[in-house]
Amino acid sequence: MAGDSKKLQPIIVKRVRRGGHAHHGGAWKIAYADFVTAMMAFFLLMWLLGSTTEGDKKGIADFFNSPLKVALMGGSGSGDSSHIIKGGGQDLTRSGGQVKNGDIASQKKAINLQAFKAEQRRAETERLEELKDKVGDAIAANGKLAGLKSQIRLDMTRDGLRIQIVDENNRPMFDSGSAVLKPYMRELLRLIAEVLAEVPNRLTLEGHTDATPFGAGDRGYGNWELSSDRANASRRELVAAGLPEARVLRVQGLASSVLFDRNDPHSPANRRISIIVMNRDAEDRFFSPAPDPVEPVTNAPAAETPPSTSTANAR
Fold first, then answer.
1. Pick from 176, 173, 175: which is nearest to 192 by CA?
2. Domain 122-287 carries which CATH code?
3. Given CA atoms 131, 134, 140, 143 in this order, what sign does their dihedral have?
4. Which pLDDT tens digit goes with each residue over 187-205?
5. What is the pTM of this model?
6. Burial 276-286 (b: 16+ CB within 10 A, else e)
7. Among 70, 110, 105, which Cα is nearest to 91's?
């Protein structure tokens, strides 16, 4: 019977449920390693900053503010062999072991000054371009002077805006060999003076003749004198029209030394008046000290001047 009782004992089945509190993985180790690495980098940065001189700190700051400028100019941060940022070039913050922050400040000032001048030139060029259009529009809008539009040449030069009034065979500005303005030339100059009075730029007036020689007996009055008198007559007309006299910086006669039509030295277009509205660079060149004169070459033979055989009047 004992054997039968053992057979009748119930069978107990134990079920194990999976889930709940599972075993933790190694993700915390990765996060802890990242934290330790960041702290090491932070303490390394603090150690480097603590062992860096003020001049080197200034160089590093300049590098990150404008890396391209520092890299091109050299100096600490781009840098010298003793700096933590290796590179080539001269250290601009050191001189004999001493920091020279004034060098960097002076360079920044020079760069800012150059940028200011460039912006000033750009703005001035725009103003002269507007003035060029304004002169052309004023002439075109005047019924009496619209026919003279073909004799007006407007262009931008190195010295500024150039306004040229050229002769035509059927409509000269002056009588032959004379510095007396024609009536329509007076009216044209007065109109130009009204427009130029609105800008502060200084002016240069130039008189030109063609290559035809002009002779007047013993008086010695030639193309140089004639071109000078015509330029000065134009100046007087501009001033009479309201242009401040102090605005005219230079009046000169160039005879036929600067031809408008080089292919035809006797072309009527070579007889002209040029009004140059000077830009700031041209004024600075005018007022700057003249260079030292070049010593003359004493061994060179003197050039012979061929006698003039023509007594025709230049126009």
1. 173
2. 3.30.1330.60
3. negative
4. 999 999 999 999 999 999 9
5. 0.59
6. bbbbeebbeee
7. 70
